[in-house]
Hints:
Radius of gyration: 20 Å
Strand order of the largest sheet: 3-4-9-8
Oligomer: single chain
Shape: elongated
Strand content: 35-45%
Structural class: mainly beta
Helix content: under 10%
Order of helices and strands: HEEEEEEEEE
Number of strands: 9
Number of helices: 1
Distance between the termini: 41 Å
Amino acid sequence: MNMLPRDHWFGEDHLWEQLFSPQFAMRDDGFFQPRVDIIDKEDSYLFVAELPGVAKEDIGVQLHDGVLSIQAKIEQQHQQQGDSVLRKERRSGFFRRNINVGKAIQAEDISAELVNGLLMLKAPKAVAKVSEKQQIEIS
């Protein structure tokens, strides 16, 4: 099974960006990309995404056609009139992370929890169906 994110990982620019990026890789198009861990447990997969500062209401998780999509947005706070920014390091923007899970998980039993800026998705592994022996009549 291949659970690699559906991003272009091996392009030269993207490879260097991933090797030497801060916690969030900010792209020119306003998107940010938090890091996601995929942990293979005995009976499930655990997906952990770093989303510090993102409200639960601003996170969406979907499973469609074997692709697990995590999306979120961070809004910039508006400045008061008369304030001047001396340095701005916090990020804002939108991101979507797609991970190909195929038929490896039970879609109806996925659970999600946001704790201290970590989105944790627990996806039980799909149980392989064992076909029963069936007698076929010969006519």
